[in-house]
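Feature request disguised as a bug report, sorry. It would help if multi-protein outputs had a clear separator. Right now it looks like this:
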Amino acid sequence: MDCLVKNIVFRVDSSLDIGFGHVMRCLTLAKALVSKHTSILFICRKQEGDLISHIKSKGFRVFELPEINNCDKNLGFLGTSQLQDAKDCYDVLENFVPDLLIVDHYSIDFNWQKQLKNRFKKLMVIDDLGNRRHNPDFILDQNFGSNELKYKSLVPKNCMQLLGPNYALLRDEFLHLRNKSLLRRNEFKLNKILINMGGIDSDNYTYKILALLQNLRNFRKIKIIVAISSKCPNLKQIKKIASINKQILLKVDSNNIAELMFQADIAIGASGSSTWERCCLGLPSIQFILAENQKSLAHALSEINAIKLVYDLKEIPELLKTADNWAHELIQNSINIVDGRGASRVASVLLND
């Protein structure tokens, strides 16, 4: 039977303020969907530090909404009203005629969606927060512990809810490396640490952690891999400390983060979407909460001892010293949470395969 979904539009943004997570998970889903012979378009607003060129480099078309000068931060990450953003999208959707519109944006809700309801056949919302009304046919929330009660009064009764880590949007390379990585975790020895605080790391955690570790004698023989984006505002400072310390290997705009995770014995990172990648590969991790939307996930995984959640950099050295005592339990508790097949599951539901 032919797929009824041919044209798909993603409305998603990225910037130094928003971060990269929304775009990266949309790209993962787009790749799963395009393999089913669909036509895909991204609608993104131009902003400082955006990933528009990265989306294009993956072979997808992007319609660029104009950058807003002196945007109003009180209006959220859109920088403008939902009504204005909907008007900006109106003609694009009329010309492309999407069978499915996918929205991944914390500043878009029911008010935006109703302005465009005649410009798409079906709507999917990707969300984590569960704090505003939507009117979609599908909602995806990949957070651990998410359930229908979370969206009971926020979506229509007939909305199909794709909830939990079974639907986590991970790139293919994590699934491909999963079995190999889990075999590697059978015996734990701390030789390599991966530091990945997200693409932007505006609070400069990466540098602070490196400065802390390089002064500890116990860790001078341990290799430290740092994965960071070229858009990180603190990159110059990080490069400087890496240049004078041979144990630090700096990876800027790495396209093989799955391989870096496979090679590492422990990760230190933010409690964002990379959490699912670490779980899939059984990589034990020490994590920080760097944004409001990371709190529920971090606390839930900490409660079942699938991650080590810390609130102060000073906790890291002691955790690393005692890693032999806790790493194996984290590995066992994390590997069953995410299997790496979430993107294909979501694509099958959307395309009715």
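(second protein starts here, but nothing in the output says so)
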Amino acid sequence: MERSAFGTRLLELIRQQHLTQKQLAQTVGVTEAALSHYIKGDRVPRASVLSGIAAALGTTSDYLMEGNLDQPSDEIAFARRLIARNAKQMTMAQKKELIDILLGDGE
């Protein structure tokens, strides 16, 4: 079975946050099996679970379901949250690369 776009985005964010599926499941209050089904595309979470997943991953339900980051300011806010959550795990080389990109020196 091919993974849904929702499942792909969910798995990508889990990896970006350096979380395990178990950690996210515990945070959201679902079983690991349920989370696995969401990732595989076998099930779609209830609205309350979806909003909990989005909050735990620093994104929106709309992004998870539709891939929409409506405005550039949304993308900047999303990038800011990702960087803030991952800054402690980033190496100096990764931080320099990020600065180069922000300054327009990196492509």
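Even a blank line would do. Unrelated, but nice: Residues 69 and 75 are 6 Å apart (CA to CA).
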